[in-house]
Amino acid sequence: MSGREQAMAEEYVAGYAGLLTDACATGRRLTRDELDSRRALGERAAESGLGLRALVGAHLAETRAHWPTAATSPTSVLAAVEQAIDAFAEGYERAQRLAVRQEEAARREFIDDLLYGRSDLGRLVERAERFGLRLSHEHAVAVAEGARAYEEGDPAPRSVERAMITRFGDRSILLTTKDGRLVCVAPGDQDEVLAFFAKHAYAATDGGHVAIGRAQQGPGGVVQSYEEALSTLELAERLELDEPVLRAADLLVYPVLTRDRQAMADLVRTTLGPLQRARGGAEPLIDTLSAYFDSGCVAAEAARRLALSVRAMTYRLERIHKLTGADPSDPIHRYTLQTAVIGARLLDWPNRQL
């Protein structure tokens, strides 16, 4: 312990020797007021930043230096020492728990403001530095979603956090949970951080989806990247995308397609509406088109994906051609059909009326 720390520790053992001598003279237990005063000193010591180990050592050193010679027995001295140190440690730990709760509350408030953009930007930048973020730079956000909701302290986020700290240490990374999802905010020029997070989050969520938003500049950029990641997760669900890790930058065409919702609805109704006349409705034939396009327009591969014979697959494609007037094998018709199928997935048609 340094000289300065020793001097500070002595402040928190003041009065301890007299208390010990008085209590041990008769072998009595410490009074409630005496215990309360030791707890209060413990709280103050915690707030000062001194370590508990050093403070306990200072109490023991004080005990050796001022061993009560008038004590009824060594046992009575040790009993008084135990009571005094225990009360002091209780106050110290109580102050630490309060500080941790306050820190957690401040961190949660900051995260809410950061991801929802609800705080004054200048103030947000100041608070961000406390948590290791420099919001004047670019940041990107990755979001992982599993079969169940996750909270801070759950095994899944803890395992991801351990892996991230082991791999990258303190590299201006913010890990948290929000609305049941795992969230990672990282500098925009450190793509390896988000890729590593995606890998471990995918494993921790037992094969959930991970979406990565584009890197964006400034305090508001975190909100934009976070919202992009959430939108990407929603797209993955609607389009039934199987890829475990999706990047918003790779899916920019989909927001463009749905920007004019009415135009897309018209395209879906006009192009795919006739499929509703088929036996079994439009859904099986839309699934057929999705598999056909996803397999590179190879009928045999599409049939395998749908567990159909090639003959059955060919029949379905011919039926689609007959009902819609559009040939899936024709490049011009193919583009219209594929765009309409994407629109149907995004608009949840035919389950939802357009």
TrEMBL record:
- Superkingdom in the source lineage: Bacteria
Q: What is this protein called?
A: Helix-turn-helix domain-containing protein
Instruction: Give residue ranges for domain PucR C-terminal helix-turn-helix.
Output: 285-341
Give the classification, highest ranks. Bacteria, Bacillati, Actinomycetota, Actinomycetes, Kitasatosporales
Q: For the CdaR GGDEF-like domain, which residue ranges apply?
A: 117-235
- Tell me which species this is from: Streptomyces beihaiensis
Family per UniProt? Belongs to the CdaR family.
